[in-house]
Amino acid sequence: MPDRPLRIVHVVGARPNFIKMAPLLAACRAAPAIEPLLVHTGQHYDEAMSGAFFRDLGMPPPDVDLGVGPGSHARQTAGIMTAFEEALDGLRRRPDAVLVVGDVNSTVACGLVAAKAGIPLVHVEAGLRSRDRSMPEEINRIATDAIGDLLFCTERAAVDNLLREGADPDRVFLVGNLLVDALLRYRPRWAESRTLETRGLAARRYAVLTLHRPANVDDPDMLAGLLDAVERVSRELTVVLPAHPRLREALARSGTDERVAAMPGVRLAPPLGYFDFVKLLAEARVCLTDSGGIQEEATVLGVPCLTLRDNTERPVTVESGVNAIVGRDPDRIVEAYREAASRPAPRPCSPPLWDGHAAERIVSILETRLAGASAGAPEREVACLAS
After folding, report:
1. For this structure, is 44 an active site residue?
2. Cα separations (Å) of 329 from 3, 21, 291, 336, 337?
3. Catalytic residue from among 44, 212, 244, 357
């Protein structure tokens, strides 16, 4: 153990970050060798997408709130970089590392600041690749991995991607999935949610739909086609749609918000808290989504998942048999829905190391690597998986 705790700045900015960071922050706070500092960039800035998640997940208030807010990719990324640099300069003691998660603008922005300041950068959920550079998230992933010092992966395909790209195997670790840590850690809480009763829903008698990817919601023609599919599905099964702010803005901008409101089989809802959403997902007959994290949650929960994209950066979810990449053609979506709804629900699947202990593995590696100590047994066990 070092003579003083390792000061690690943990960065969050968007809803998926909060969920993944909660179990990791708890594990770091329980480790005497680590002093975690939490920085919230403000990328997701409203109550539904930010404040409610901090409360649900029992996360402490951020030590630093950058309050950057919305903007184009360039403006938001630049704003986060400027504010984060100032925050680091204002710390009394230089951090031993900056830890970022996922693939949002906060991830790459804070990663760049850390790398240019010579502070070791830790990327959790490294190596995921969709092979689609039209996705802003793909650019964020590639850039962050290129400058990262420790790269923690959720699945073997991510390890293989990094090694293929020339990453030093000594920096790459297969550790499991923090999203699964959260799912298992908070199971008693989300299992008690009464959201089905309050919404008049019966288990397995509805579908869950989420849409937020720019490629799906920012193009009016693409959005209209997806709504065609949703309307057809909703004639056969109630569709619950917790609407991301980006989707609500796109619906209003394209003038299709009234169309959705008039669909009798669609239940439009505001963004839900973590416990209510997981309960809603766990009891659904089928899930339609363009979210990467929901693909993973559906896999572990055994809920048939139809991914409304032409690719996924999480191939293990497809290999599990729970997730299917169905694209964005309305006829194909409806056909895939009918196929999924006509079959028995798949068995829940837990890929290797999706066991609820990813945070513990990450903490063990951070303690040994950042302290400059030689690799201990826990680290050798994980490192060999990346060789």
Report:
1. no
2. 59, 35, 17, 11, 12
3. 212
DSSP at 244: -
The per-residue DSSP string of 70-87 comes to: ---HHHHHHHHHHHHHHH
The length of the chain, given as a count of residues: 387
- What span, in angstroms and rounded, lies between the C-alpha atoms of 116 and 75? 19
What is the per-residue pLDDT across 361-385, written as a single tens digit (0 to 9) for each?
999 999 999 986 433 333 333 444 4
- Residue 52 confidence (pLDDT) above 90: no
Which residue is listed with tokens 């500092």? 37
The CA–CA distances, whole Å, from 253 to 63, 215, 217, 220, 240 equal 37, 15, 10, 9, 21
Q: What is the mean pLDDT of the chain?
A: 92
- Residue 24: in which H helix or E strand, if any? helix 15-29
Residue 170 — φ and ψ, nearest 5°? -70, -10
* pLDDT recorded at residue 51: 64
Residue with the two structure tokens 């397995």: 204
Could you tell me if 210 and 307 are in contact, meaning their C-beta atoms sit under 8 angstroms apart?
Answer: no
Question: Which of 131, 127, 277 is closest to 196 using CA atoms?
Answer: 277
Beta strands in the chain (DSSP E): 6-12, 34-40, 64-65, 97-101, 121-124, 150-153, 172-174, 206-210, 238-242, 266-269, 286-289, 305-307, 323-325
Q: What is the pTM of this model?
A: 0.92
Cα–Cα dist 341/80, whole Å: 43
Return the amino acid letter for 97. A
